[in-house]
Amino acid sequence: MSDFFVHDSSYVDEGASVGSGTKIWHFCHILPGAVIGERCSFGQNCSIASGVVIGNNVKVQNNVSIYEGTVIEDDVFLGPSCVLTNVTNPRSQVVRRALYEKTLLRRGATIGANATIVCGIEIGRYAFVAAGAVVAKNVPDYAMMVGVPARQKGWMSRHGHLLRNPDSEGTMTCPESGLRYRESSPGMLRCLDLDEDAPLPKDLAVGKMIYDDFK
Questions:
Q1: Do residues 46 and 67 lie in contact, with contact meaning Cβ atoms separated by under 8 Å?
Q2: Nearest C-alpha neighbor of 141 from the set 74, 188, 84
Q3: Which residues of 31-58 are buried (b: 16+ CB within 10 A; e: fewer)?
């Protein structure tokens, strides 16, 4: 008996690996060779191709296809109908199955609804790609990316809030969690209070409403 949930309308092919506590909802298809971690969630109408590797606690919303060549680390969020690709220059007449490009979504990243991630790039840890953005270049850790083509608007905390008002030392504080952040070098942000590989403590894992982030 499996220790993950699959809705009756979905298919998990023989040869796919699915971790404990994962939930696969309506009309999904997990192909042979896909590797999915523990405590993941897949909404309606998702397709996960052979060779895809997905970590633990990944949330995939409705209508998302994840193609071969994609590696997704722990705690990533993929919003509804976001798009991932695996060939930069597709042509129907040219077979490029041996040339699929790697796309890496690092730990804690968020990809907004209807955003497009062009293949062959890396989305940094805890980066936040806004709804509808089109990303074609590597994204730094904690970067907030908006627009077409996507550009960096600022920095986002692990709780998903724009970081503002640096103090005299350049330290910015998340309005929800109180965690502090600072640029360790130009274009590179780090959290001062948690190890980059550490999950959120349990007392910080329940959200609080903050209203003025994007005004």
A1: no
A2: 188
A3: bebbbbbbbbbbbbbbbbbebbbbbbbb
Distances (CA, A) of 165 to 64, 114, 130, 162, 188: 36, 30, 21, 10, 17
Q: What's the rounded Cα separation, in Å, for the pair 77 and 61?
A: 8
- Cα of first residue to Cα of last residue in the chain, in angstroms, is 50
For 41-94, write each residue's pLDDT tens digit: 999 999 999 999 999 999 999 999 999 999 999 999 999 999 999 999 999 999
Percent of the chain surpassing pLDDT 70: 97
Core vs surface per residue 76-97: b (16+ CB within 10 A) or e: bbbbbebbbbbbeeeeeeeeee
Instruction: Tally the C-alpha atoms within 13 A of residue 16's C-alpha that lie toward its C-beta.
Output: 23
- Mean per-residue pLDDT, 132-152: 98
- In the chain, % helix, strand, coil (3-state, to 5) comes to 5, 30, 65
Q: Which residues contact 167 (CB under 8 A, 6 or more apart)?
A: none
Give me the mean pLDDT over the 95-100 stretch.
90
> Would you say 71 and 102 are in contact if contact means Cβ atoms under 8 Å apart?
yes
Pairing of strands 29-30, 11-12: parallel
